[in-house]
């Protein structure tokens, strides 16, 4: 009897490990929405739970990222009515055969975690079987080149993976700012607290979100979706560590991590504390190199010059198109085959993207011309030069045509941080560059309140007669408009605020009025040089933990 029992047990064990028949597997790239009986062979490389908005304890859905043996990834989910059918089966890191999933297109235009236009759903008919012979990637990393992020070429609407050495001081390599939010920040702090002597820290952030604020790219953790690897013993980090060996730069040594105080200046300190406030008339003549704060209203745009330039993606200097180069952008909105003449640039032949270069007539106690570049232009317009350039092409207009979004800024009262350079002083040129701009109403009001009664009494700018002031303004605007391109319709300047430098409509009211006019017209599929779609003015501040990643050369 004992022998029989052992024999039966042995037979059972052999049966349990007998390889199952291989199903007919379909690759993710070959899935067809018209077929509902496909089987895929995949690994779960990310899994997270979504809870109900109304009840934090109620599981709303299970979300996954799956990868097949070809390295193709797709997002999948288990909806609420099927959660408990699959909840105890699906685990991060395991591999499965998944038969009869639902396959449908996902909402376009939003942020996506994979390159697929479609998404899988686990439905009642779906069958999940564990797989033990998966030969695909372990993690499915797709590391993004830092240069494509820093040069603002990489799209913001798709998740990215980055790897790098954590540093705390400027170095020769390309550097990238990483924001770790919530639990990811705690995880990094916990690692630092428990590894005080391990100062070479390699980090991988997977499924991160690229954000560009005022022309500064940062990589952020994306809710609970992102995955953070800190000095993990995996091939990708070990290979990266070896690439640093033998690098003679000081930042690639084992003693790289230094805690330093952030040198980022708050908007309030930049405008209210660090620099002297001037009236526009006080800086109308460039007497010395310096940086000042002014308050003024946009009264006009110098449209005799182009509103953008084509910048080298490596150094942001203006690049030039040699004979025979393509004068149309590729599918990513990038021009190729251009020449960069900047002697400090690492490239002579380069690709280029449009960047903003707009000259505004700013008026308050006098009139001055300020040049605004991509960072601050994008902050106000909520669109980049690349966005406006592509839109202009799609509408069939010449790229010399001034977009309505730019014209809609007329009437805005803003605070400006400006720089008077050696060129301005030596050439007696009072067209200054904008270093920073703010549309914060409270900050602008505080700046205006800094003009005390004594300052008003001694400042000639406040004693300018109304007739003289309007005469000067008209002369400047007339000269600018007389050289305007034919496709621009000059607008008369509103004189209501000219007699009172501190009196104007508030910023959001002016901007909303201008933009609503445009939006109404564009709904009728017409375009005017003074009409634009609505612009969101939403914003917010959050406390974050910041690290920098450096990519080895």
From TrEMBL:
Pfam family, one: DUF223
Signal peptide positions on this chain: 1-16
Domain Replication protein A 70 kDa DNA-binding subunit B/D first OB fold: 28-131
Keywords on record: Signal
Keyword Signal annotated: yes
PANTHER family linked: OS03G0429900 PROTEIN
Protein name listed in UniProt: Replication protein A 70 kDa DNA-binding subunit B/D first OB fold domain-containing protein
Organism the protein comes from: Lactuca saligna
